[in-house]
Amino acid sequence: MTQATTGRRSRRRVLRVAAIVGSFAVVAGLAACSSETDEPGDDALTSIRFVQEWPVPDGFWIPWVVAKDQGFYEEAGLDVDIMTPPNVAATMQYLGTDEADIAFTTSVDIVTARSQGVPVVGIGAYGTSNNWGLMSKTSEPIDPADLEGKLIGTYNDAWSNAQLSMMLASVGKTISDVTLVTADSSTVPLLVEDQVDVITGITNAEGSELESLGVTDYSIAFSKDFGAPDAPVLMLAANEEWLSGNLESAQSFMEATIKGLNYARNNPEEAIQIFMDTYPDAQTLEFTQLQWAATAALFGDEGEEVTAAKLEQSADVWQNLVDVSVEFDLIDEAIPVEELFTNEALTK
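Structure (tokenized):
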């Protein structure tokens, strides 16, 4: 396998795991501290430190940005600090120590962190399926069987490599049959400028970015249709030790977040403007509009109310993810699925 590298940077990406893995040993076993309140008294708010998945704000954050702006967290008795991490590796570091209570992260990060002894647990799914795949400027989704000798724009993370490996394995091929072109921050410029044949990404990230750049004739071959588990890419997670002493606060947080999600789905223009006002330099308005539309669609049809049940996690889905993580060497050995998630924060 040959591999080229591009230095192009943009404000979009798929989540990276490789850089995080090396940091888990540092944080393993450290405990998270309990929530604190602001000023003592009947009206004191419970503080929750909520760390994000990426150091640059993106449209995925809209439900909680809206929930905070509209006062939903305050009504629930919470003072939520939406924290932007300094780098992608910091999310799990923060959650595994006393720097954060809840995180927006990925299902794979939870599995990988847990395998290193970090006390993190999934508390809610952000979407209902795996929307990762191979994007190409072709009228029909590319067949993985036709990838031999092709240039694939991707990221230097374990999960992208694993999903691509699964797709290739399903048609009797391996990574050595293709050439990887690694992007620092976004694979999209590689496809736009015809430097590669296909790119890896998710519908509401790279897909939305392509559309914002005028590339509307792309197609996507989903990894879930070629051997990959149909597990949601993005998740909400908590420090397990914090959660054990703050379940009611976690429940209030999830309830207010779902309220923000529904508000944003029902009032997309207002929600997008709230995000743009909060983070004016994060990304373009057009990109945010497309990204939120694609993200909102992950939770059901327009006008359909999202309930807590929509964010519930399945043991079967987690088991499939664990099995694949072991098979493709993301983790050394299987983890009991009951250690990876809980739906208790979704019931109040």
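The chain has a mean pLDDT of 87. The chain is about 35% helix and 15% strand.
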